[in-house]
Every structure is written in structure tokens, then in C-alpha cells.
Design a protein that fits this description.
Distance between the termini: 82 Å
Structural class: mainly alpha
Helix content: 55-70%
Largest sheet: 3 strands, antiparallel
Oligomer: single chain
Low-confidence stretches: 91-99
Strand content: under 5%
């Protein structure tokens, strides 16, 4: 009798020597399998699924942040709706746009994850080898997107080890390749869980390593990455370095007449003054931050 078997699997969870991988290879060679790759849902599909789970229609105010937060992952959509995150805890697009790119890249975990989503992602990360899991932590500290050279510098400079561990993250669909030297996490929630699993002391150390890596790689022209360096030094609890780079980033913004961005960067520097000892150093930083904003 003719028999049709329909099944689903996560290809990234199947090792090369697993019996399922062998079976797939045999079926492909025999021409007895049809494979359909399932990507994320688009905005309309996300809204349809969310409305089905919620038992009501979603308006545009609810739909846009839900799609942005879940990125069309069906499990995340379902669990977000079940956890009541459709309207209450998801920020409007204006709130996201109000933050600088450096802020958005360094502030995962502002909203609670549904427990099932947290558990599923944690289980995926737990399957990684120790080097790959450690590298995922470093990458999560850098931000949603990162480059190989920054990852190598921040990860201790072991190029062969970093490339091997990165290959495992890519094979397991934890990260995706973006161009010749760039990568990003396949979903920001994966990055969120990887980052949340780091102790505060370890997190500060990693942010310092990332800031130093950016300074080393872009030493010839720090202007484009000054805001990122400042944000990492701030997270590393190194306010003096953070203030210097916030001031530099503000000067860069002023040169292209991005005055509102410049003011915001200078205010960040001023907010860190309280972390410095009272004295000439604090006064010098305060004057350097106030002088550019006054010239406006």
C-alpha cells in the first residue's frame, strides 16, 4: 500500500551522525521525500494567529509591537498572547524609536519573557558545547548584531576557537550570517536569554572587553563607534571612559547637525558624573559635557 508519512523536525537539532540525518540522506537519494522549509510568519499571519489565540481581533496598535517583539515566531506569538503581552507590556513603536541604536543594542530583557519561551530557548542553549555557549554569551554582550573581528577580540583572541564555536552557533541556527564578516542572532529573544544568564560581575567584565575590542579595531577612526563604546563602558561601570566617549559621540552628531541626538548623548555623560569622585576630574568632565550643548 502507498503510505504518506508527514513529520516535522528542527534540522538544527539533528547532529550529522544522528539516525534521522542518515534517514533523510537516504530518502533524498531515493527521491522519496519532499521538504518544506518553514520560515517566520509575516505581519498579517502573526495577527491572524494572535487573534485566534486571543479569541478577538487585534487593532494596529496591538499588532505592530506584537510582530516586532515576536518577529513572527509562532511559539512566541502564542505564548505572548497567553501571557497577556499583547497590549499591556509591549512598548509602542515610538518608544523604540526614541532610544539610540547603542541603547537598543545593549538593553535586552526590558520585558519579561513568557515562561515557556524562556524554557524553550534555555533548552536550546543548554545543548551547545561549553565553548559555543560561552561565545554566545560574548556575542549577546556585543549586541543583536556583531562582527567576527570584534567577537574574536572580545572573546580573548583565540581565532581558531572562536571560529569553531561560531560555526556551531551558525549550524544550530542560534546566529545567522550577515555578509562576509557580520552575524546576528536569529531572534532577539535568544540573545535575551543568553545575556540574562550572566552574573553581574561577569557582565561588567564582558562589556569592558567589548569596549576595548571596539577601540582596538577602530582606533584609526573611533567616530562611528563612539556611542557604542560609551554604552559598553557605562555597562562596565567605568563612568570616566563612558563620559569621554559620550562627549566624542555628541561632537560627531553635532557635525552632521543631529543636535537632538547630541544633546541626548551629552545628558547621558552628565548623568554619569555622580559616579565619579568629587574633585577636579568631575568638574573637568562636567565642563566638557556642558560646553558643546551651550554652543547650540
Amino acid at each position: 500500500a502507498r503510505l504518506l508519512v508527514l513529520g516535522t523536525m528542527r534540522t538544527e537539532d539533528v547532529r550529522a551522525r544522528h539516525h534521522l540525518a542518515t534517514l533523510l540522506g537516504d530518502l533524498r537519494a531515493a527521491g522519496q521525500i519532499a521538504e518544506i522549509a518553514l520560515g517566520p510568519l509575516d505581519t498579517a499571519e502573526t495577527v491572524t494567529l494572535a487573534a485566534h489565540v486571543a479569541g478577538r481581533g487585534l487593532d494596529q496598535v496591538e499588532a505592530e509591537p506584537l510582530y516586532r517583539e515576536t518577529e513572527g515566531n509562532p511559539l512566541f506569538v502564542v505564548e505572548a498572547v497567553r501571557a497577556g503581552l499583547v497590549a499591556d507590556d509591549l512598548p509602542p513603536a515610538t518608544e523604540e524609536r526614541g532610544a539610540s541604536p547603542a541603547e537598543r543594542s545593549l538593553t535586552p530583557g526590558r520585558r519579561r519573557l513568557p515562561p515557556k519561551v524562556q524554557a524553550v530557548i534555555a533548552a536550546r542553549l543548554a545543548q551547545l558545547s561549553d565553548p559555543a555557549r560561552e561565545l554566545a554569551t560574548v556575542a549577546a554582550t556585543i549586541g543583536r548584531a556583531f562582527t567576527l573581528d570584534v567577537l574574536i577580540h572580545a572573546g580573548g583572541g583565540d581565532e581558531d576557537g572562536v571560529v569553531h564555536a561560531l560555526g556551531e552557533l551558525w549550524q544550530r541556527h542560534i546566529v545567522r550570517e550577515q555578509g562576509a564578516n557580520g552575524y546576528d542572532f536569529s531572534h532577539d529573544k535568544i540573545r535575551e536569554v543568553a545575556y540574562a544568564d550572566v552574573s553581574p560581575a561577569r557582565r561588567r567584565l564582558l562589556h569592558r572587553h567589548v569596549a576595548e575590542a571596539l577601540q582596538s579595531i577602530y582606533f584609526a577612526n573611533l567616530d562611528p563607534v563612539s556611542a557604542r563604546i560609551a554604552a559598553h563602558y557605562e555597562q562596565a561601570a567605568m563612568p570616566d571612559q563612558a563620559i569621554l566617549h559620550y562627549r566624542r559621540a555628541a561632537e560627531v552628531a553635532q557635525r552632521v547637525y543631529a543636535n537632538e541626538e547630541a544633546i541626548a548623548l551629552l545628558r547621558k555623560g552628565l548623568a554619569l558624573l555622580g559616579s565619579l569622585p568629587v574633585g577636579q576630574e568631575q568638574d573637568a568632565h562636567e565642563l566638557s559635557c556642558k560646553r558643546p550643548s551651550a554652543s547650540r
